[in-house]
Amino acid sequence: MTAPTAPTAPGARVPVSGAPDLWCTYAAVRTLAWLGRAARTPHRAATVAHVRGRRNADGGYAWSRGMPSDAWATFYCVATLADLGEPQDEPERTAAWVRGVWSGEAYAMTPGQRPDVWATHFATRTAVELCGDDVPDRARLLAWLGRLQTRGGGLSWSPEHADAGDADARACFYGVAAWRALNALRPAAPPWDVPALVRWLRGRQTSSGGFTFAPDATVPCLWATYRATGALAALGAAPDADPAPWVLGQRLDGGAFTRWPGYRVADVWASFSAVGTLRTAGGVTPEVAAAVERRLARLALPTGGFTYREAEEAADALHTSAAALVAEPDAPELPELRRWLEGCRLPNEDGVMYMPGRGAEVRCTLWALAAGAFRDDPAGAGAISAWLTRLQNPDGGFGYWHGRGSDLISTAAAVEIRRLVGRPGDPALDLDGLAAFVEGCDRARHGERGHGNVPGAPATLRSGLHAARVLDFIGRADRAAVADALDRHRVRGGGWANQGARLPDLLSTYEAVATADRLGIAVDAAHVRPFLDRTASEHGASWSPLAPATGDPLADCLHRLLRRRLATPAARLPALTLS
Amino acid sequence: MSESGTPETVTRVREALSPYLGDEVATVDAGRDLAEAFGERYDSLTAMECVTAVEAAFGIEVDFVAHDVRHWFASVERIARFVDGELEDRVRLGSHG
Q1: What's the pTM value of the predicted model, to 2 decimals?
Q2: Which residues form the Carrier domain (chain B) (predicted)?
């Protein structure tokens, strides 16, 4: 595959949110901390407030305010506060939240989900390195980490993925870093065949000096280089060849780094990965450190936090898709918005990313396809279908991205992607596996009606709708059950609620109509209109009658699509998922 | 409906909101925008808890679609006016019932 350049949309105004992003914020602050410059973080007080604002009452942290806590956001928030020299709010409560995602042998991203190495890494380090806690069962966790090793020597996302031989440099880093945290607390031998693991990691180095994530990847990138060299360093090993010359070769005119040859954008993760690599490969020179600090300052937002590139150019796939979804069919900007989405891919992953250079995600890929990306590119669409097949987890479901534990949001998005780009002859999805995952999320055995987003989560309307669309995809739709769920969550005054039947929200109402249409269940427009009227204002649409109308383009998009659907009953809503 | 809610209702509204907004709600200007006074602490999750608390305290029911909840739950004064209006409606409907 040819390495993608940065996505562009010449002549079109690609929408930008102007909002900080948690992953970008963590990467920027951690890089400054590595350079000994965290105290000089631009807009430091606002950044601290931004991070603290992600904290939930349960002690965990969320990607954005109002969302549920997850292990990744919790690690990023707590680690960022530590790097900034700020005390945590009630670390014992955060430690208790982390114990709540313990599965019995490893950690899950959210309560009730299956464990994966992403979550296990973040949760272990949060507990041990940041909260001064221990893991609930050290021996079982070490055994679980040991079972991540594939026959080829590399580590995988879960023991079940390891059985399938799906090794990746990211999984190696996360597994090794989790062991390193345990070992620092009390010495423990690494639970792997270390020479085989070192051999596998060294084997990811290309002749250029950079690394790839996996054997089938062809384009080396800084992210893979940092993860591979970081894992080797933690194991007391080094690459066969010094990676520093290749890393230093990825600098652009301003002196900061780009992710892979030809990309030409000095994003926040490139600085993070380059500095992370150089720390164990000869050190960071003062000139490099100064250039990185200058670049990071350019990515800081006055409201606190960081984004991935200059704020005025920091477009993302969801907002760009939303703009394309509501554009008129003959809008002059539409082709360029779609071309931008088609360019929003990594060198070695064929799905669409949320932000360029970040990693392909199932939901964003669905939004991009629904917005018309790859409509005129059969080869690109076919590559997405093949990428999707590789993402199906051993439990039959899909996660947000490669190796993430399954959830119904992602699984519903995945089958919708397959509907949009699947072609005869594509590698088959495991349909029985899909059914088994949906069955695992059915709350009947817990005395509840409906489905939860993950096997241990409480039932919600949207999870039930996601389950219904997956079952419809495999020819096992249950219209009566869906009609029953819609009745139970129908709010008397208009719209549908995700929990109970009191507070209707835009996303649930959108998905209710989309799913009802998909299954041939009649929708009463007179029930939807009052809700749309109540959530409309001169400032744009709001997510619920209680939420402020902030002009969020995603809310505006769903609101406008619903209005169109009511005006033209034959129109069908794209079956988008968000949360 | 009174212009600002009766003093007694204003006091009871403050009491109902205090578990969610803290002691400051006892002294915040009744006409001040709660989102402005409490910032991110008065987000939609907290607002939902406040609505439920006011419903329980006064025995009324808020309809999130028929009532403009964002408007009525923007300040202590407006909440009190809303409550008084609902109580008056109940008496009126009851007297005709």
Answers
A1: 0.95
A2: 12-64
